[in-house]
Amino acid sequence: MHAINVQNVSEALYLGVLRIRNTGNIVQTRAGETLEMPMPVATTYMNPCERVLFYPQRDANPFFHMLESLWMLGGRKDVAWLTPYNKRIAEYSNDGQSFWGAYGYRWRNWFETDQLVTAAYRLKNFKNDRRTVVGIWDPSLDLMDNNESNDIPCNTHIYFKVRDDLLHMTVCCRSNDMIWGAYGANAVHFSFLLEYMAAQVGVGVGRYTQVSDSFHAYTEVLKKLDGLVADYDPYATNNLKHYPLVKDAKRFDMDLSRFLADEKREQMTPYHNPFFHEVADPMRRAWRVWKGGDLIEAISVAKEIQADDWRKACVEWLERRVK
């Protein structure tokens, strides 16, 4: 197994590109040509909350990454909520209405229980527990005798453990696109989950390890990262402070439900968790303004975002669209 130990996702992407170019093998897949590592890859983030990418070559969409993460935590599977932020996302739905393999829905609804509630209970009540596993893969339905589905879960299991008052998380993935998945969306989705769970348990955020069985990059996409310049520590370089996702753990789910349900909300009744009105709301408003055709005003709204990292990423992403 290849091990990549990093501070944050920026370091992971740079080192991952070097590693897969030097070591990867050409593999033809149903979705196109890839470079695939010959062994599984374990990436460990020492500071998983440093999850925002700023590389202009990568041009990661911070709006979609953050809002999809909240949609996941809310246990949703509907296509309609996500499509305003990524119009191509519907291509991964079998029926255009819902996602079969939606991670959040499987965490909170799929197995006739909210696994996150049970996991938090175990972690709080059983010292040094080693049995807290959240399942995503359902072999009774996902292990098919055909390849007709557009949406089979890539990430399959999540392991949690508390050691020295820190919550550590290991995520297992059967198939991990290095650029779009592992060092893009996954780094945000699962670090949000880790931070949320740590708050529910009442401990700090520990390490996040992603174990990727098929760790690969599509060769055409990889070419876009030619000349990637090392930027190992953009948080320290730019003095970016992490803005906590959760302040009031008991009322976070209620705030999240309100945010997800009220698409037209414009900072009316305050949330109990400031992340929503100081980070999520202005990000959503900036996106709407941009999609409405006023890019300059969208940049102005994005500058209202109180989280240093998300503000920087959103403003720079919009500024790259100024013609």
3D structure, described in words:
The mean pLDDT is 95. Strands 1, 2, 3, 4, 5, 6, 7 and 8 form an 8-stranded mixed β-sheet that branches. This protein has 13 helices and 8 strands. Helix 2 (62-73) crosses helix 7 and helix 11 (274-291) packs antiparallel against helix 12. Strand 2 (25-29) and strand 3 (32-36) form a beta hairpin. The protein has 323 residues and is an alpha+beta fold. It has 2 domains: 2-240, 2-Layer Sandwich (Thymidylate Synthase, Chain A), CATH 3.30.572; 241-323, no CATH class. The chain is globular and about 50 Å long. The protein has helices spanning 9-23, 62-73, 79-82, 103-110, 115-125, 139-142, 178-201, 219-222, 234-237, 249-261, 274-291, 295-302, 308-319, and strands spanning 2-6, 25-29, 32-36, 41-45, 133-135, 155-163, 166-177, 204-218.
Secondary-structure map:
Blueprint: E1 2-6, H1 9-23, E2 25-29, E3 32-36, E4 41-45, H2 62-73, H3 79-82, H4 103-110, H5 115-125, E5 133-135, H6 139-142, E6 155-163, E7 166-177, H7 178-201, E8 204-218, H8 219-222, H9 234-237, H10 249-261, H11 274-291, H12 295-302, H13 308-319
Helix pairs in contact: 1-7, 2-7, 5-7, 11-12, 12-13
Looking at the overall shape, the CATH architecture of the largest domain is: 2-Layer Sandwich
Strand content: 15-25%
Topology as a string of helices (H) and strands (E): EHEEEHHHHEHEEHEHHHHHH
Determine the number of helices (DSSP H or I, runs of at least 4 residues): 13
Please identify the structural class as seen in this structure. alpha+beta
Question: In whole angstroms, how far apart are the ends?
Answer: 45 Å
CATH superfamily of the largest domain: Thymidylate synthase/dCMP hydroxymethylase domain
Shape: globular
Could you give a short account of the major beta sheet?
8 strands, mixed
**CATH-assigned fold name of the largest domain:** Thymidylate Synthase, Chain A
